[in-house]
Design a protein that fits this description.
The chain is built from eleven helices and six strands. It is of the alpha/beta class. The chain folds into two domains: 158 residues, SPOUT methyltransferase, trefoil knot domain (Alpha/beta knot), CATH 3.40.1280.10; 81 residues, no CATH class. Strands 3-2-1-5-4-6 form a six-stranded parallel β-sheet. Helix 1 packs parallel to helix 2 and helix 8 runs parallel beside helix 10. The longest helix is centred in the C-terminal third of the chain and has 19 residues. The radius of gyration is 21 Å and the shape is globular. About 2% of the residues have low confidence.
């Protein structure tokens, strides 16, 4: 169970958690903790380079959610915050060419229902700083993106955004039976290891270079994120990439200047 508290939390969201990236005000962390507790979400992670003022957080969390503040998981990077989760929803109000396809919170949570109903899957809701929101780099760790529809003014308080997403996730799974999908999905830790090998292998064959690496890897992440890779499949992809790299670097009989694809094809034909 993903929880930073010793207090027992019942289904259906016992393995869900909030990720707050760079929140500016301790009071907003406390408010998020209070909302998480109201909807049965036991995990709260904050990405920060300094420890937030506990007294200011506790003031907004109230007594009932104080255990979430006292057991707060503090990390230095978004990557570290994402590691335990299998599926993460990133929240954003910004549009852009490299942004993921936008969906409302209700649409996203409906898609997430089968995954969130499996008690083995850890579901994360990620929120960015109040003034800027999540960056493209933060969203690289998310399989889903959610935008709250508003009128002309698209900026919402962090606590408001947290409340809307927690409510929609809660409603999506509230009447659903806990049902295992039978699949052990790769979590973010597994996926980041895989993406590291994919990047290395594609750079080796010159598909990626310094000018296009970020663009193409972001597209690859979004494609593979839609597939929902299992732990075994992520390990398989890593194994293929390692084999590519081994043939590229460690074959003593490979002629200098012989392109890697030709070397691999020749070896596979032996």
């Amino acid at each position: 169970m993903l929880s930073n508290s010793t207090e027992a939390v019942s289904a259906p969201l016992a393995n869900a958690g909030l990720i707050l990236v760079g929140p500016r005000y301790p009071e907003n962390i406390g408010a998020a903790a209070r909302i998480a507790y109201n909807f049965g979400i036991p995990g709260l992670t904050v990405v920060t380079d300094r420890e937030p003022d506990q007294e200011r957080m506790l003031k907004m969390a109230t007594h009932k959610a104080s255990h979430l503040i006292k057991g707060l998981r503090l990390v230095a990077t978004t990557r570290e915050a994402a590691e335990p989760f299998h599926f993460i929803v990133g929240t954003t109000a910004r549009q852009g060419r490299q942004r993921m396809r936008q969906n409302t919170p209700r649409m996203v949570m409906e898609k997430m229902t089968p995954l969130a109903s499996d008690p083995e899957n850890r579901i994360g809701l990620m929120f960015g700083p109040e003034n800027t929101g999540l960056t493209n780099e933060d969203l690289d760790y998310c399989q889903y993106s959610s935008t709250i529809p508003t009128a002309d003014f698209s900026s919402l308080n962090l606590a408001q955004a947290v409340a809307i997403h927690c409510y929609e996730l809660h409603m999506a799974v509230a009447d659903q039976p806990a049902l295992s999908t039978g699949t052990e999905y790769a979590n973010s830790f597994d996926l980041e290891g895989m993406y590291g090998h994919v990047t290395e292998a594609l750079s080796e064959v010159t598909f990626l270079d310094e000018n296009n690496r970020t663009y193409w890897m972001r597209n690859i992440r979004q494609f593979l994120g839609r597939i929902h890779l299992s732990k075994k499949e992520a390990s398989l992809i890593r194994g293929i990439c390692r084999k590519f790299l081994w043939h590229s670097r460690c074959q003593p009989e490979a002629a200098e200047g012989d392109p890697l694809p030709n070397r691999i094809a020749n070896t596979m034909g032996r």
